Amino acid sequence: MAYFPLFVDLENKNILIVGGGKVAYRKVIKLLPFEAKITIVSPEICLELQTLLENNKNLVYKKKDVDVDDIKGAFVVISATNNSSVNNWISEVCRKNNILINSVDDMENCSFIFPALIKKGAFVAGISTSGKTPDGAAFLRDLVEQALPEKVDEIIENLGNLRRDLKLIVPEQKFRAEIMHSLLGYYSNNNFELSYEDLQKELKNLVNNISVKI
């Protein structure tokens, strides 16, 4: 079975991570750039997590065993313990309360899985093998990342700003789509090395051409 890729806004959402070892650390590292409020619940945590706590205001540590109240207050729960009975219990509580749960290396107790991530500014790509081979997903992520143009984050920002301006002058969506498609081709043919001013000039030309057609 394949998993559907769903991109979710995690800003200020409550994320609970149960467990304090290296696995929990790797999950925290993936989540921090998305500005979620992350709570780690574990009797002990590794040195890497301790270091993160000192430098991240969105990261909180509760030195205790997890309980139902910890879980019910979460938007997403990640169970990163090495105790199968604890993982099973957490998954059961989450499912009963319609809370998304990822139980590390335990597909039966997951309602979602982590992709291999690429994040560069607003550009985010998730590579998944639907849990069949995480190492394969990581390998494919590296191949995709190598194929991306340099400064892809800057490219996305430029296109986003141009699209915003375009919506103010071309009300019809189908014409905006045609213009943006042509602009992307122009940008790509110039190896994505054009200045923002060059892109604005080309956008103006494309809008004028569309106006003539209309």
In words, what does this structure look like?
- With 214 residues, the protein is an alpha/beta fold.
- The chain is 49% helix and 15% strand.
- The protein has eight helices and seven strands, in the order βαβαβαβαβββαααα.
- The strands form two sheets. It has a five-stranded parallel β-sheet with strand order 3-2-1-4-5, with helices on both faces. The protein has a two-stranded antiparallel sheet with strand order 6-7.
- β2 (37-41), α2 and β3 form a beta-alpha-beta unit.
- α6 packs antiparallel against α7 (173-189) and α7 (173-189) crosses α8 (196-213).
- The longest helix is centred in the C-terminal third of the chain and has 18 residues, at 152-169.
- It is elongated, with a radius of gyration of 22 Å.
- The model has no long low-confidence stretch (mean pLDDT 93).
Strand order of the largest sheet: 3-2-1-4-5
Q: Could you describe the largest sheet, including whether it forms a barrel?
A: 5 strands, parallel
Query: Helical percent range?
Result: 40-55%
Q: Unreliable runs, pLDDT <50, ≥5 residues?
A: none
Tally of individual helices: 8
The count of strands amounts to 7
The chain-level mean pLDDT equals 93
Global shape: elongated
User: What Rg, in angstroms, do the CA atoms define?
Assistant: 22 Å
Query: Proportion of β residues?
Result: 5-15%
Order of helices and strands: EHEHEHEHEEEHHHH
Structural class: alpha/beta
Q: Cα distance, first to last residue?
A: 47 Å
How would you concisely characterize the structure shown here?
The chain is of the alpha/beta class.
